[in-house]
């Protein structure tokens, strides 16, 4: 599902990624761990087409995404990749339902289609009574589940998560981690999760260790 070939990335004089090679199989849940500054988030951003490597190739679901122009890469990202961040990044002026609808509307779905799919996903994630609530009316765990629903709205092949449970308490962490596996089993998505959470890393299908811009 994901092929990363000979990726390098520098910011000024700082080389963050050093000839990184990685593959992730379809429907695999992979964690990437390592100390702060190891290059984990940069690698995730390059895989997600949010950043460009200095050299190397990224192939997602058979499509070479390095080298696509900005319009094509944005369209590919919207259709194929869902993102879950440590801080949910929900838009405060919109309801849970509206936040989940946004990527579908960007992808030119009809409003009624986007609303129907968003409602189904929020109900699936146990948020049927929170559809019209704004982010400041939701708990931390609820906000993160809304963010997961938003990541799923376009039925992407790949979900990329950066410290998704980093701001949650223990109970909500366990619930979120279980949710990832339930979603994989139900929809077959591929997950790549950057995490410092050792308990999460232990239960993923595979753990990739990074240090100083290399994969160990």
UniProtKB/TrEMBL annotation:
Pfam families, per the entry: ABC_tran (PF00005)
GO biological process: lipoprotein localization to outer membrane; protein localization to outer membrane
Organism: Dysgonomonas alginatilytica
CDD domains listed in its UniProt record: ABC_MJ0796_LolCDE_FtsE
SUPFAM superfamilies per record: P-loop containing nucleoside triphosphate hydrolases
Keyword terms: ATP-binding, Cell membrane, Lipoprotein, Membrane, Nucleotide-binding, Translocase, Transport
Lineage: Bacteria, Pseudomonadati, Bacteroidota, Bacteroidia, Bacteroidales
Gene3D superfamilies, sorted: P-loop containing nucleotide triphosphate hydrolases
UniProt name for this protein: Lipoprotein-releasing system ATP-binding protein
ABC transporter domain sequence ranges: 2-216
Example GO molecular function: ATP hydrolysis activity
Assigned protein family: Belongs to the ABC transporter superfamily.
